[in-house]
Amino acid sequence: MEDFFDNELVNKFEEMLDENESIYFESDEFCEIISFYLDIYDYEYALKALDIAFALYPNNIDIKIKQLEYLVGVEDLHNASKLIEDLKELCSADTDYLIATARYWSLRKFPHKAIDFYNTALENEEDEDYIYNSLGNEYLEINEPVRALNSYKKALEYNIHDEYSLFSCIHCYEALHQNKECIAFLKQFIDVNPYSEEAWFQLGLQYLNLRSYEKALYAFDYTIIINSKSIAGYTQKAFCYEKLNQWEKAIEIYEESLDFDDTAAFTHFKIGQAYNKIRKHIQALQSFQKAVKEDPQFDKAWFEIANIYDLIENNDEALHYIKKALDIESKEVSYWKKYAYLTIQSGKLKEASDSFEVIVDLEPNYFYNWLAYSELLISMEDFSKAVLVLHRSLKYFVRAELYYQLGNCYFLLKEQEKGKKFLKMALKLNPLIKEEMQEKYSILLRDNKRYKNPDINLNI
Prior knowledge:
By secondary structure, the protein is an all-alpha fold. Among the domains are: about 180-245, Serine Threonine Protein Phosphatase 5, Tetratricopeptide repeat (Alpha Horseshoe); about 265-350, Serine Threonine Protein Phosphatase 5, Tetratricopeptide repeat. About 75% of the residues lie in helices and about 0% in strands. The protein is built from 27 helices and no strands. The longest helix is centred in the N-terminal third of the chain and has 15 residues, at about 75-90.
């Protein structure tokens, strides 16, 4: 890659620009310079080279083809179309012209036309790996993954080290839901290219999809043998041990990776989770604390710290740390639920009520959020607010529990007629939980014989 960027002609061209000098380049040298800039998507310098080249060689066909490549690259399809037509008779057999024209039709969303031009370009027996990859992309556009797969495989035949082709083959197998066939393909690829870190890693992922964790471990082991600093390899190997419930081994693998891990916060977090699984909560706490030391914005780690302090019944510390998680991510409903629980445990019912207001806004389609919110308000004897909340909940749910609660609240507010109305509705919806509701709300159902078999309109 360093040799690619250290291009003597390009260096000479840029030196000419920097010094504001005039240096002579042959037309084919300009073509090489322009191609270099197009390959690295530096369209500004490609245009500069084109302008200077045309000043010297205004009718040069090869430079005009480079201009076409530039126009396609910057998606100037109007001018590209004109140039395609101008060059058609002279360049119909030129590989670069054919590829640029194919790319033009691809950008225009005419994949069949693009395929035709790519296939014509193949007849010249040049740039086959690039053309086959491009053909694969077009076949995917017309939802033909089998033909796409064959094209990407062809690209690999021309360049066994092309990771784009390899990934594309795997993508096609996944699109075809051919997991076992993908494994067979990767094994064949590894037979030819046994030191391909990516192939071994992808083989491990395919085994994970089949829940063949022992075989996945084998593949990830080879990934790490090839690249002893493969964070992805270590992470997936540890994940395999997690799926096998071998938490101590997972911890060992995570810890091995810490020496060269530039995302150590996440690794410490995973170690903490593993310690939690084997009920070593103090070690888990230490790991989560290391995670937030590495990354103070790691809200999930603060959340886990709060959970551990809650587990060991240190409510004040738990509240302190859940607030840190919420300061970072205020839209995570699980954090608010934990905060509501902790504030209730601390007797801070007003704060709990405020947090439930956020919870039902964030997650209105979860029934038990509304039920818990209304229960809290009833326990606070804030029956008027409970009524408002319950009526809001009825926009999302028609559940007997909510109607029983409304009946209870109206009776407690001494609004007997409304209490009877919602009690009747509750009994109509679900009379089977009548005794449970009566036990929870003693004011209910003391005259329940009167409403035993109600026949009323439930529309309210």
